[in-house]
Amino acid sequence: MRYLLVDHITGLETDQRVTGIKNVAMSEDFLEFHFPGNPVMPGVMLLEALAQLTGWLRAVSSDFQYWFIIEQIVKCHYYGFAFPGDQVELDVSVIEQHDQGCPRYLGMAKVNGRKKVVAEFSGRDLPLGDLDDIEYKKRDYQILTRNLSMR
């Protein structure tokens, strides 16, 4: 199964920063086992949401030529849980540019202004066309940004 963990992109500054939202729904299958009777969104899924949001930053910044793939987590701290019904605020910023390869990113996930995850990570860009249909990704971006004028 493929998890799409960004429900809405709320802001994007090309090559700099992207913000978005993940709504945690009780119907998500990973909650059934994490943990039975006490469902919480796994911290690694919050980290994956940050990585996916970074993918959107790279896609838009490269005119949909590249997608970010996380390769290294420099540091990561978990501060609490995201529960069903929570709206997780996601924020990813470039913190260090590199001439070779991908920059380093700082990602943060919050619920009601309270930190849940803070991570510093890096990775590489892969050609988006090798991973997905570029026109579908452009359409998905329009949906995620609610930008109806691009249709």
List keywords for this structure.
six-stranded antiparallel beta sheet, Thiol Ester Dehydrase, Chain A, 6 strands, 151 residues, 3 helices, single chain, globular, alpha+beta
What general outline do the C-alpha atoms trace? globular
Number of DSSP helical runs: 3
CATH class: Alpha Beta
CATH H-level homologous superfamily name: Hotdog Thioesterase
Tell me the strand order in the biggest sheet.
1-2-4-5-6-3
CATH architecture, by name, is Roll
Elements, N to C (H/E): EEHEEEEHH
Strand content: 35-45%
Radius of gyration: 15 Å
Please count the beta strands (DSSP E, at least 2 residues each): 6
Structural class: alpha+beta
Tell me the distance between the termini: 29 Å
At the fold tier of CATH, the topology name is Thiol Ester Dehydrase, Chain A
Mean pLDDT: 92
Q: Would you spell out the secondary-structure blueprint of this structure?
A:
Layout: E1 8-13, E2 17-23, H1 43-61, E3 66-78, E4 87-96, E5 104-111, E6 114-127, H2 128-131, H3 134-145
Antiparallel strand pairs: 1-2, 2-4, 3-6, 4-5, 5-6
Question: Any overview of this molecule?
Answer:
This protein is globular. It has a single domain (8-20, 40-140), classed as Thiol Ester Dehydrase, Chain A, CATH 3.10.129.10. The longest helix is centred in the middle third of the chain and has 19 residues, at 43-61. Strand 1 (8-13) and strand 2 form a beta hairpin. The protein has a six-stranded antiparallel β-sheet with strand order 1-2-4-5-6-3. The protein starts with 7 loop residues before the first strand and ends in a 6-residue tail after the last helix. It has 151 residues and is α+β, with helices and mostly antiparallel strands. The chain has three helices and six strands.
